[in-house]
Amino acid sequence: MVRTISLTELFLHGPLCLYTANLFLSQRGIKRDLFSLLSSFLQLIGTIFFVYDEYLNNFVNVCQAEGGCFDFGIKNVLLFWVLFVFINPLLMLLAFIHMYKAINNILAQERWKYENCAIENGYGGNYYDNFIQDEKPQQFGKKKQKKD
């Protein structure tokens, strides 16, 4: 299971994250938010599968010490406590944060609710405030009537 997750992250999730990062740097819009949602969801699912598989197998891959997971040797502290216990919940939290922001951005774009959008421009204001127009839209294609 661990090899499958590792290969999936290497060949599928890695390029997807690079493409999503490129979208974040180059454009804004629903495409960027959908790819952010997809890559965050895959990160969350991969982390859950990885942690649950280790839990079912009594942490054989992450607890290398002879005394088990609660042996506080330097190898066990780094591998189990730092990389497994601390980093995995952090990855899950970051995935949830990105999913929350992406969903808010998608809903703001779909419903035209600019005040709920999580994207801020460089001045601290909402990015989509630039597109709000209070004036009536112009009507094109109507002929002007001549006055007699």
From TrEMBL:
<keyword id="KW-1133">Transmembrane helix</keyword>
<dbReference type="Pfam" id="PF05241">
    <property type="entry name" value="EBP"/>
</dbReference>
<protein>
    <recommendedName>
        <fullName>EXPERA domain-containing protein</fullName>
    </recommendedName>
</protein>
<feature type="transmembrane region" description="Helical">
    <location>
        <begin position="34"/>
        <end position="52"/>
    </location>
</feature>
<feature type="domain" description="EXPERA">
    <location>
        <begin position="3"/>
        <end position="100"/>
    </location>
</feature>
<keyword id="KW-0812">Transmembrane</keyword>
<keyword id="KW-0472">Membrane</keyword>
<feature type="transmembrane region" description="Helical">
    <location>
        <begin position="78"/>
        <end position="97"/>
    </location>
</feature>
<dbReference type="GO" id="GO:0016020">
    <property type="term" value="C:membrane"/>
</dbReference>
<dbReference type="InterPro" id="IPR033118">
    <property type="entry name" value="EXPERA"/>
</dbReference>
